[in-house]
Amino acid sequence: MKAMNIIKTDIAGVFILEPVVFDDDRGWFMESWSAPKMRSVGLEYDFVQDNHSYSTQRGVLRGIHYQRGDAVQAKLVRCLKGNVLDVAVDLRKGSPSYMKWVAVELSAENKRQLLIPRGLGHGFLTLTNNVEFLYKVDNLYNVAAERSIRWNDPELDIDWGISRPIMSQKDVNAPLLRDSDCGFVWRI
Q1: What does the pLDDT look like over 48-59, one tens digit per residue?
Q2: Suppose 131 and one of 42, 55, 68, 86 were both cysteines; which one would form an S-S bond, judging by CB atoms 3.0 to 4.6 Å apart?
Q3: Which among 45, 66, 122, 135 is annotated as catalytic?
């Protein structure tokens, strides 16, 4: 029985995961992650922490975030309530897709997830009010290693579809990629 459609994106290691949903008159069931099944297709992750965020209104932008050094994280993200535009940016110098980004709409309805490997930045924009968002990460959060890249960095040219998002002061003041201390390097 197939439990998940795995869709490649234009960035190496970034996948859209579409669960197979089983519906009946009681509701639905889906498998959101299976380590043995993912391992069988070469996707091996040991998620150690789940983070759950809530955004009250449409237009909230969180990101572009990453962690440096030994605290670097891979993420599996999904939207549990509402809709978001989820963005992953390749920050790995030397990568064939360095500074490229992929954007995917994640929603409670489509149940899609985005698998983001280490070395990428991540952010999302709420497209509805009352959004709940879940992150599975493969490394524990480390405040000293937390970093951000400016959401509207002209070199990245991400099309968020909004000119005045609602943001934290930390994200508003984030540096451009060229001014950051991001040190990810592409490894084959």
Answers
A1: 999 999 999 999
A2: 55
A3: 135
